[in-house]
Every structure is written in C-alpha cells, then in structure tokens.
Amino acid sequence: MRVSKRDKMLLVVLFVIVLIFGYYYFLMLPQEAKIESEKIALEEKQQEKIQLDALLASEAGIDQRIAETETDIDTIAKKLYGDVTHEEILMTLEKFAEETEFDLGNLTFINNASEAVNGVRHTANVNFTSDYFSMMDFIENIEKNSKKVAVKEIAIRNTYEDALSGNMVLEFNGSSLVEAYDGNYKKLVSSAYNYRDIIPGPFKPYETFNLTEAVVEQPPITTPEFIPEEETPIDYEDYKPKTKIYDFEDGDVFFVGNSEDIEGFVTRNKTHLSGAYSAEVVFDFVAPRIFSEANIVFENNPVVLNRQVESLSLWVFAYEASDHAIGAVVIDSKGKEYRVELATQVDWTLWQEIEAVMPVEITYPAMIQRLYIEGVGYEQKLTGKYLLDQLQVVYPVE
C-alpha cells in the first residue's frame, strides 16, 4: 500500500500532537500539581512566620512589662520597712528629733497588727514635750523620711507656762518581703548596736564569765511521820487543768516605765516554783503622781495565744503587802488592746497565785504583750520588788 504525501504529513502532525499531549499529561500536569502544593505549603509557612513574629513581639512586650513591674516593685519596696524592731523604731524617732527641742518621753508599742499577708504594721505611742516649731520640724522630718511612717493621731496640751506636751501615735508600715525585693535593704540597727544580734538574751553570761555558786550548808533532813489522808474525789465537771505558757527561764523580758523618770529593772532570781529561775522585778516610781506603771515586756519570744482562753494566772512572790495592782496587757488579732487585771492589790507575802477571767471579746490568735504593776493616786507605794513565775492559762474543756 502506497502512502501518499498528504497522509505522511497527517501522520507527522498526529505524532507531534500525541507527543505534545503526552508531555503535558505526564510532565506538565504533575508539575502544576506540585507547584500548587508548594504554594499551599508556602502560605502555611507564611502564616506560621506571622504567628511566630507576633509571639516574639508579645514576649518582648512581656519582658518590658516584667521590667516595668520590677521597677515599680523596687520603687514601692524602697518606701516600706521590712520586719522592723523596737530598736529600729526608737532609732528612727531619735533621728526625727535630731537638732530640735522635741523631747521624747514614754514609748509604748503595739506589735504587728496587720491583717494583710506578709504585711507589717507596728504602732508607736509617743509622749513628748516640745515647742511649736520643734514639733512642726519633727512632723516635717516624718514626711521627708524615705520609709512610710503615718501620723495617725496627735493630742497636744498647752498650759501657756511650760512647753507643749502631748501624745503622738505613729504607724510604721512595711512588708516582710521587702528584703527579698530590695537588694540594698539594710537593717537600721546592726549587730554593733543591737544586742539581740549578738547574744540570745541579756541575762546570759559571756563565754569568759565564770559563775561561782555559793556553797550553802543544808540542815539535816528529817522525815516527818506520814499520816494518810482521805482522798478527795475529783469533780471532773469543774476540773480545769492549767497549761504553762511562759516560765521566765531565759530572762527574755525587759523593763519599761510609763514615765521616763521611773526607774527599774528585770533580772533572774533562783527563788522559783518551777525550772531554775523566776523573774525578779525591782522598780521605783520616784515621785507621787496620779498613775504610775512598771511594765515587764515580752520581746524576743512573744507569748501567743492561738485559741480561746478561759482564764489567765500568774504566781507572784511578794516581800511585803502593798496597794499595787498587777495585770497583763493582751493584743488580739484585730490590734485591740485589753487590760486583764489579775490582782487589785497585793495583800499577801511569799508565793501567791493570782488569776482573772479573759474577756470574751478577744479575737484569737492573740498576744500577751506585757505584764504591768501599777499604782494609782498620790498615796501609792512608790517602790516595789516582786518575783514572777509560771504564767498559765486555762483552755475550755472540749
């Protein structure tokens, strides 16, 4: 069969068409599909990049906010006290009164009454004498102080003859976290001035101090004839056991008068009811006045009452009878102060236990801040000496 020239041309055209179709179908179409797939993958990667860029920008913003917050915390921390002590408060007040005629008198303290977590709020009740300008300078020094001190109350008396006198209530605010946030925070009273950073108690001797015990000849011991007595049955309905909460062994208390001219001290005495020591309190009110008070303040080891107490008792050794009243000052968790009078007068000698019912209004936990011995009226006995031992409480029977 003879193929014409026209047919040959047609066959060549057909072959070219088939070749082009095969190239497109087997090579171009897969490449186009791959290109579309790569475009989709590219778009996904671009979206991931946008998200990562946004995340990086957000982290940079977070770092900036963290730095700003740390700066704010540092600024606030510099205005607050840490765990401030009575010595630091006293030094601060002395600094405020420098180069003025503002004379500090009796100081009383209320320990941390803050209800905030890690909060610190100590209150100092200051009696003072001053002239008007010195008092204003003192207040101005308080306002200029780098740490926050709030003037809560001021009571001023003027007789038009002597200097001004009065009472000022100052509040020292802070946080126990200040030292952690403020790297430059330093205690106002260092070990060179604060004995509590050096020795655990003022009555504990130095290492080189040798205490020589006096040798006392004991009288011969005679054994008395034992006569059995009828046992008295215990009335369990009225039986209320007492729990000792402080025994005065460490001498960890100090003396404060409610007037600066009142003299006195607290030391340890070997006459005791339990343990090895009692606390010996000696005081002199010096001059007759309407009200005099000697305080035995618990300092390093606060006496804390964690739950409700029915009554409080104390053993007191009196060398002679007197008109002094004896009691305790309790600060509850709301910062309210209660005076619990244990005895209205001392009408005994030797050891005697005195006791009083605790006020039901007290919000627990509470703290026994101090014990007091007071005299009232111009006829009060001006001097006194007592031994104190075994501070005890009665808890409700559950």
Describe the structure.
Keywords: Membrane, Transmembrane, Transmembrane helix. This is Type IV pilus assembly protein PilO. The chain crosses the membrane at residues 9-27. It comes from Fusibacter tunisiensis. By secondary structure, the protein is an alpha+beta fold. It has four helices and 16 strands. Strands 5, 7, 8, 11, 14 and 16 form a six-stranded antiparallel sheet that branches. Strands 6, 9, 10, 12, 13 and 15 form a six-stranded antiparallel sheet that branches. The chain is elongated. The protein starts with a helix and ends with a strand.
* Spans where pLDDT lies below 50 across 5 or more residues: 189-219
Task: Count helical runs.
Answer: 4
Ends distance: 127 Å
Largest sheet: 6 strands, antiparallel
Keywords: Membrane, Transmembrane, Transmembrane helix
Organism: Fusibacter tunisiensis
Protein name: Type IV pilus assembly protein PilO
Transmembrane segments: 9-27
List keywords for this structure.
single chain; about 400 residues; six-stranded antiparallel β-sheet; about 30% strand
Element layout with pairings:
Blueprint: H1 5-77, H2 86-97, E1 103-110, E2 119-130, H3 132-144, E3 149-157, E4 164-175, H4 178-181, E5 243-246, E6 253-257, E7 263-269, E8 278-284, E9 291-298, E10 303-305, E11 311-318, E12 325-331, E13 337-343, E14 350-357, E15 366-376, E16 383-394
Antiparallel strand pairs: 1-2, 2-4, 3-4, 5-16, 6-9, 7-8, 8-16, 9-15, 10-15, 11-14, 11-16, 12-13, 12-15
Keywords: Membrane, Transmembrane, Transmembrane helix
Transmembrane segments: 9-27
Protein name: Type IV pilus assembly protein PilO
